[in-house]
Fold:
Amino acid sequence: MFNKIINLIKGKKDPAAEAVRIPFGRYSDNNKSVAKGNRWTEADNLFKERKYIDSISAFFDYLKDDETQNVTFSADPERVDFELFQGSKVIRGKINNGTLTAEVKLAKMPQPSVPVMRRLLEMNFGLYYSRYALNNDELCMRFDTNIETANPSKLYYGLKELAIKSDKQDDLLVQDFSFLQPIDKDHVDEIPEAEKQVKYEAIQSWITETLDKIASVDADKFSGGICYLLLALVYRIDFLIAPEGQLLNELEKISGIYFKKDDRQMVEKNRDMIEEFKKLRDKPKEDVFQNLFRSRYTFSIVTPQPHKTIAEAINEANNNMLWYRDNNHEYFANKIMEYGLTYCQYSYSLPRPVTQLIEVFMQVNYPEYFKTLGYAQALYMPVANKFDQELITTRIRQIQNQWRQKYPLMNFNVAQLSFTSLQKFNHSFTTQIELLNMNME
Structure:
């Protein structure tokens, strides 16, 4: 701490700060500051006072992530306009003559198609707030409401349905109907080719390493451990690669093989997941590159859960890890503990500080990947089995301090971390996340 103060006095950069900052993991809207939370309350109160435009303005300010600039909203006496970004889609809307209207373009349809229209008609029955539409030769989704009924909850769930469904369906429609053309994607941010190459090679390496490890053990005796390896691989790619589009859909398909409720044995499900990973590994590099880009999001595709749910998932994984640890299967043990964290990141909308802690965990476990991405500070050196204890503890304390106002009871006890081996570090680290008190008062 003394050294940090001296560095600040001298104008030096924080030694724990990285020059490279790459976003990891799925977007979570469970990250609002106290001030943003207050804007929701203001929007609700203004609506009750029938100050509808002021209420809607406060609502959009609540939605806006100041870091990513995912929402734009402008109002003047004659017109109100807004834009929301959600992955590969942008939702454009306006308020005119007392009606709020929002629309998002899905795909271009050069010629009429009965199968496409039948698909959209069937999907309309699953929507609560929005609807599919055809505007000349453009497939769209729309949501509208009278501003007198546009309370914050209705706006939130209506726009969320519009955003999430459109971001998913544009890729699926173009994939299933080859004559449809992608549309309105100019707003996505391309990532450098070098970063795409690093991510592509990481996918290849992780799949090969996992499948080789699986091939070295008995498929029946280790069916549970193999399942953990495969699911951990899905969630690792999802978190560290952050794929979009078709690649993301394929990962969700692999995860769904295990969680689908049927009577098949785990060995069979493992076999199917392995085959899907082989297909993913064989996918042309150009196809993978097309699904690597950076997007802005407004809504999480999964919902928040109480920390008790996260703690139970971590605890279950750690308990299932013990047999592998005690029987000298360290590789399996580490991946099972990784699964406990990344399953939660994949399945739930986590508070930002928990996601940041998971990033620290992944940086310790995959130092070479972070190095190739340009991260200069190695948290762990596997060959020497050496941890940068000071840097790890500094990062954790920074996360806690950053979120102290919102989570005053959050206490990650760094004194309980073990730095004697990777397996012991992982166990102690995940246990501390399990024990966090994420109550806001």
